[in-house]
From TrEMBL:
InterPro entries: Aldolase_TIM, OxRdtase_FMN_N, Oye-like. The keyword Oxidoreductase applies. Residues 5-345 form the NADH:flavin oxidoreductase/NADH oxidase N-terminal domain. This is N-ethylmaleimide reductase. One of its GO terms (molecular function) is oxidoreductase activity. The keyword Oxidoreductase applies. Keywords: Oxidoreductase. Pfam families: Oxidored_FMN (PF00724). It comes from Bradyrhizobium algeriense. CDD domains: OYE_like_FMN (cd02933).
Amino acid sequence: MNYPSLFSPLKVGPYQLNHRLALAPLTRMRAAKPSLAPRPLNAEYYAQRATPGGLLIAEASPVMETGFGSPGVPGIYTEQQISGWREVVDAVHARGGIIFLQLWHVGRVSHSSFQPDGVLPVAPSAVPIADLRTATADGKAVPYETPRALETSEIPGVVDAYRQAAKNALAAGFDGVEVHGANGYLIEQFLQSHTNLRTDRYGGSIPNRTRFLMEVTQAVVDVWGADRVGVRLSPYGVANGSGEPDPMPLYTYAVEQLGLLGLAYLHFIEPRSSGAGRAEVNHQNVPSAMVLFRPIWKGVLITAGGFTGEAADAAIRDGHADAVAFGRIFISNPDLPRRLQRGFPLTPYNRATFYGGDVAGYTDYPEHNELEQA
Ligand SMILES: Cc1cc2nc3c(=O)[nH]c(=O)nc-3n(C[C@H](O)[C@H](O)[C@H](O)COP(=O)(O)O)c2cc1C
């Protein structure tokens, strides 16, 4: 029998991937200010990582003004942002790549200094992130504020912002979109019991807490068709104050419901690397999302988190996942697919340049040069 490998083709929705190594969505905080539109530097960065038939998932992009919690993050709700993204998409398509956009709302993972008119961030319930600090718009480290709970009547407006953002992504020429339901942001705040104390139809029971995820996903599917929409989840994750006491029943229900839609893919973050955006984490003795949920997800499964080339290949050969998204080592190795395929050494990444800045640590990582190595 011929087992699939990291370098065998894969069909994702209508797209034929030539390999199974994707760029994970990575916030890099280098959009133009104050427009928060992608700029030519961003197009160069994505184009460097594009390969024919390779999937790139572009960084989380807020769907509305209240969806921000950090500086220099690109939005997807103004004309200027749409045109900025169009240049990114064109640059990736020129190299034969396939690019999805991740749609984002941070909810309580924000500070009033990022909010329109300096109001409090919104969330399902007025529960602050305890024990962690955040940065204000002028860079001061402060405790998280207590967010304002969304009124039931406001929720359709947030769902509509996702719908409009999905339309905007379509107008920008993307090949699909990914709903960011992971890492402690708004959708996950609705899902999890400690951040959702609501007593309306969006809180309480598991189906009620899953309702917002499903309404957002359905709105995006209405725009794109299910086969061009992915969803990212991080069961057992600990980022940004996440943590469901017993994730299995909640995520089993959510995955089953998503399974009814016929989505392009489901995308997990493995718990061992939850919080990788903030620290070098490799949590030990934690469950594996792909192993736990594979049996109940019939579609394409992408996973991410702490993978080497060999581990990714093994996950695919063992049938635990269909594709693997790489984050940190794709930052420092723009030609990662070729390097892993040919066994070339990897350039280490520099965490200090992950967020914000310009060219340094963004577009200046070199491709592997065989001649220099020889
Ligand atoms: C700098 C940085 C930014 C990230 N931004 C996002 C993001 O915008 N959306 C998201 O879903 N995950 C984000 N993550 C998580 C990554 O997509 C990925 O799941 C994580 O880094 C683990 O994969 P890795 O071990 O290959 O880096 C980020 C991680 C890093 C290091």
